[in-house]
Amino acid sequence: MFEQRENDPGTGARRGRLTTTHGVIETPVFMPVGTRATVKTLDGSDLTQLQAQIILGNTYHLNLRPGMDIIDAAGGLHSFMGWENPILTDSGGFQVFSLAKMARVKHEGVSFQSHIDGSPLFLGPKEAMSIQKTLGSDIAMVFDQCPAYSASRKEVEAAVERTTRWASECASQPRAGGQLVFGIVQGGCYQDLRSQSAAELIEIGFDGYAIGGLSVGEPEPEMLKIADHTAPLLPADKPRYAMGLGTPAQLVELVACGVDMFDCVLPTRVARNGTAYTFSGAIAVKAGQYKDDFTPIDPECDCFTCSHHSRAYVRHLLNVDEILGLRLLSIHNLRCYMRLMEQIRVHISNGSFSLFREEFAANYQPTSKVDEQRKNAQK
Fold first, then answer.
1. Which of 46, 138, 263, 293 does the annotation list as catalytic?
2. Is 90 a catalytic residue?
3. Closest CA to 231 of 245, 249, 247, 248
4. CA neighbours closer than 13 Å in the CB half-sphere of residue 247
5. Catalytic annotation on 263?
6. 217 and 97 fall within a common domain
7. Averaged over 171-200, what is the pLDDT?
8. Which of 246, 264, 282 is the last residue of a domain?
9. Structure pTM?
């Protein structure tokens, strides 16, 4: 199921291979987010060309629209969206956090008001696993409670207790054929609660383990500290997944912590705001300094956008609100993330990941500095 192939001698970084019903995944891996059965502005052929190995779907949103009757009639999520490779589905537990104003946490689950029409909804361990069974995803996540960074220790303790109890219920539910189930470690920024949560989930036993409850408002150093504490607690023979993270620089550091799998909305979200990622930092492509810049967004990138179009053209599309601009930047950003994972895997195999990590951190700059350096270079 999960084979660990190589380890970096200087860090916790490791290279592995995860076998699922719909294909083999080489790790470390980044998973594009397809919340509503689509990665925004892209289709399956785009994702194949970008060399995406696995994508995500969202239990909460797909259950609302199109609904499980439609997904079931289509033969499952893979068939519905025309994607033949692996899919991971989250459980809807994050919506307990993101829709907190419309949700009421109970012993057996969470009562919601639909963000669409305000109608009453309920989601608990049984419901979340039943939906994911119908979706037919390769990897299903347990239903958990994700506390906010501002939560008190007492509130985080309660969330850990619920997460363990709900995870135990999830583990006993029917699943789709060959479907893997991952547990989710919670505990906020309290290391002892993270240790407790990890130990309790390992006792239940899952096919993989995720580090949840990060990127919920905590400072980046705190996020990395918790990830570095938690990852080594998880079984070495199972995949480790950091949920909802992060920037390219963060991913390199999280790989060094021993994390194997990642997802994040950032590549497509910042693309829709006119920003491109590169290995040296992010570029605000909409900025006026690129209006007559006819070079690729990133000369080192092999994506369709960089092979066929200039910064000036992409900037023009963005500034006249053409959908193609969003699509071209999304293609570039996701390919940037795929290339990063490819290079990380190579460096782990070659025993050079530690050096790659140092050089990447030294070269990666905030958006403003990257734009300033490029502007000065053009003078």
1. 263
2. yes
3. 245
4. 20
5. yes
6. yes
7. 98
8. 264
9. 0.95
DSSP state of 301: -
Same domain, 117 and 93: yes
pLDDT at position 193 over 60 = yes
> What span, in angstroms and rounded, lies between the C-alpha atoms of 115 and 61?
10
Q: Is 181 exposed, middle or buried (0-12, 13-18, 19+ CB in 10 A)?
A: buried
Q: Which of 8, 46, 90, 138 is catalytic?
A: 90
177: exposed, middle or buried (Cβ count in 10 Å: 0-12, 13-18, 19+): exposed
Q: Give the contacts of 112 (CB within 8 A, at least 6 positions apart).
A: 95, 99, 102, 103, 104, 120, 121, 122, 123
pLDDT tens track for 292-320: 999 999 999 999 999 999 999 999 999 99
Residue where the block lists tokens 């956008």? 305
Q: Once rounded to an integer, what is the mean pLDDT over residues 102-129?
A: 88
Angle between helices 248-257 and 353-363 (to 10 degrees): 150
Average pLDDT over residues 121-138: 96
**103 Cβ neighbours under 8 A, 6+ residues apart:** 95, 96, 110, 111, 112, 113
Supply the range of the domain harboring residue 86. Answer: 2-264
